[in-house]
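Recap from last week: sequence in, structure out.
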Amino acid sequence: MESRAVEVLSQMIKIPTVNPPGDKYLEFVEYAERLFKGMGLDTEIVEVPRQVVAKACPECVDHPRYILLARSGEPKIHFNGHYDVVPPGPESAWSVARPFEPRHVNGRVYGRGAVDMKGGLTAIVLAAEAAVREGLRNFEISFVPDEEIGGESGAGYLAESGKIKAPWAVIAEGSGVDNIWIGHRGLVWFLVEVYGKQVHGSTPWLGLNAFEGAVKIASRILEGYMPRLSAKRSKYEFEDPRGASPTLTMGGEVRGSVKANVVPGYFAFTLDRRLIPEESVEEVRKEVEDFIKGAAAGLDYRVEVRVINQSEAAVVPPDHPLAKALEGAVARTRGRPPRKTICIGGLDARFFIKRGIPTVTYGPGPEFTAHTPDEYVEIQQVVDVARAYVELLRGLR
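Predicted structure tokens:
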């Protein structure tokens, strides 16, 4: 199974499905469809409507998006993964392999998308091959685009389409072989815009420096709002305990003036507020907007707050039958039970959970190499995950 994993994964990495804008999507989907057709599965390629793509990513609208579906019998479980990858960055930063010329070295396959998440897709393929050999006809599969730009035009569209027939879903994102993600945090991104009066830098008394106003508001956030977050703590276990409290990152993006000798009349900065499962997007929007309104009170600036991105947190209870079934399958495969934790980042699971399809995430790692130069996945983890999937299918006959 190891050699087959290297073969399939290497072929997937060689197809540079870079997003944005969404390159080589059809080539990848057609490659994967050939694999599934060769197993005797029923397949379908669904093109995501252009208007859905335009809403999610206006600059991507001329790059069609495709969802691949494969099915065997009456499905009890739906295996899902995304095939898009982030840009590789400068090739000079890659030392072990070129981004789309994978190398198999010391039990690892290197290349862009190896762990995020073509390693997971490979595990699904291996599991499907093994299941077919055993005569298991109780699963379906989807390979989707666009997780790397939010998922609305990938898993989001699929979840709304009604094409998922199985009652439960497993996403093959790289949780690591000894860990199941039963949920993930959410986010709300804000843009705080401060308006002053632009004048020449030689006469600052004639203007109103928007940057200084932004500094005052940022200081009030640091001193008055951020301490509140550490006082909140989720009841669930997190892969890193520090993720159990909400967080706020300021200034990931800033916008402002254009020259040293100009008093800026406009300055803006972002807030990246991460949600624990016990919080809702609407609750956090109101909380932050109300605080900014109070922080700006008494200042001479016009201050506006806009939400520029949002995503709900999602969770399946750790004692849910799906979580327990997968936990048992992993334990029988690995010889020890996995942890069941909350992912600190975001996942496509929220789309399925929102539509009433309980979803957990289990896939090969290590997670920390995602999006980095010399990204890699451990081939043994790909194989172990595939074996756990087959064990799960055996238990659902």
